[in-house]
Write a structure and sequence with these properties.
Length: 321
Amino acid sequence: MSAMEARSMQDETFNPAEPVHVSVLPEECFDALMAGRDPASVEGWFVDGTTGAGGHSELLLQRCPKIQLLCVDQDPEALKIATERLKPYADRVRLRRSRHSELCRVIRKERIGRLSGVLFDLGVCSLHLDRATRGFSFAEDGPLDMRMDPSRERNAADIVNHWDESDLADLLYYEGDETHSRKIAKAIVEARRRAPFMRTSGLAELIARTLGGGGGKIHPATKTFQALRRAVNEEGDELGMALETAEHWLDDSGVLAVISFHSGEDRVVKRFFQNGRKEDRWELKSKKPISASHAETRSNRRARSARLRVARRTRHRGGVQ
């Protein structure tokens, strides 16, 4: 995690009064998915693979009267909010609960066929951070959960209380870029012998004591919480499945737009597009990711670390199955 990413997460977590459910890079995503086409005449199916509160979806449906939209999210709470928000477009939208790894099955079940565009907005959102009961935030006490999909069997407490010290240290280092991973893992293992960790505040306080500080701009527990969240939700594996699914179902000239907030995720998307370009499967719209404007970052702090990568599908390795 870069300093910018950590600061963005910290700022958002510690400012509950900030507006919730604000979509990042909305205009940039819309322009990318249109790919120079007239919104009034664009047709076909689009997929919002991380619907959240439905902000990006609403913009697409408002401006493109001929498109149909499949909205999926693994979080039932988010889908409930999006369903209400998108009621005016009920005849053109389908909302389904799904993880990225299940998206291919959902598309096939819905009999949608080829897609004109796909959007993924990765990572944690305000719906998670602003609700202490979800267990994502170290700013407010809550259960040590962190599941975006509540049906997942493993939560953050399971990892913290049962993984051995070496595995914990590796997780914090590789998924959170935590340079003090071994020191934190050792402290966790020693502390859980006395009592298991069940609340976010207990874990955050231990990390702050272990590393010292806690009053700076970036909380000492930021990277540990990120690593645990990524492990609980298997975000690395899910991203790989999301990209493969989009590549399989996008029609020729269809567009894939991916917003990431984690440097590791951005590298995965970059490599995926670059490898596809070499094999004439993707045409990159730009070499560098698109960042939020200064005006947007002032009004929506989550946008500070957002990176948008866009590519257009060029040819298929086989037919839709």
